Amino acid sequence: MARDFYEVLGVPRNADRDEIQQAYRKLARKYHPDVNKDPAAEERFKEINEAFSVLSDPDQRARYDRFGEDFRKVPEDWEERVGAGAGPGGGFRWSTGGGPRAQYATSGFGSEGVDVDDLFSSFFGGAGRMRVPGADQEAELPLTVEEAYRGGRRTVTLQGPSGQRRYEVDVPPGVTDGQRIRLAGEGGRGSGDGPAGDLYLRVRIQPHPVFRLDGRDVYVQLPVAPWEAALGATVPVPTPSGATAKVTVPAGSSTGRRLRLRGEGMPGPRGANGDLYAELRIMVPPKLSDQERELFEELAAVSSFDPRRTR
């Protein structure tokens, strides 16, 4: 599965040159092999450089936006070749989702003396027959946080022009929101003996009642009792794997304190896992027993602590 260059740099598809450059510099500093000794850092650094070299070049970026990962197979002068065939009532229309398509008319190409078959043959090979690749298509793949964590095989049903179609999809563990999964040859059908386009499933991770994602890092609110926060305690915390981890709450902790569990976030197929951050939230009993009330009143009487005092 090839990663989308925009995803590699973490920028939207409409990012301008400055945004792309800033994202590249930040990632390059983080993953440069001289700085990052993680074994996967070098490959990640190469991936970042490749993405930047393409997206920072207007011509390469235009071809990549139109043709995806196959953009290097398209001649650099494809716009000139297409433009040469455009005439009154005829021409080419390029689909943003994939390959070129002929737009037929009663006049235009013939009157300009342009042979459509020859023009397409120069693009895609073959002799005497037009081979038009099918357009790439895209659909959303909704996943829960747990499904994105585990990955695995899923059956996806999509509604198309000819009815519903079912696909078996291998979801890699640790997919992130916005990542694309490619199903080769499952896109639009080609014309003549042209190959079919590809279907891209864009992952959309659904909101979760417990977990909040930021890239591969996972955030979870961790309720603790006042005495646990004051005295310190070891408490359980849920993880997206379904297992329960243990975290040590230091004595004297307040609401909002963030405790880090290294590697307990989303899996990282090309490097280290993300981290899990437990954000403390001090909770008091909604209804006090007589003994609890007495103890809290005693604490209030002997304590000099004032949470509103400016330090």
TrEMBL record:
CDD domains linked? DnaJ (cd06257), DnaJ_C (cd10747)
PANTHER family documented for this protein: CHAPERONE PROTEIN DNAJ A6, CHLOROPLASTIC, DNAJ HOMOLOG 1, MITOCHONDRIAL-RELATED
Q: One GO biological process from the UniProt record?
A: protein refolding
Q: Where is the composition biased (Gly residues)?
A: 185-195
- Recorded GO CC terms: cytoplasm
Q: What is this protein called?
A: J domain-containing protein
What GO annotations for molecular function exist for this entry? unfolded protein binding
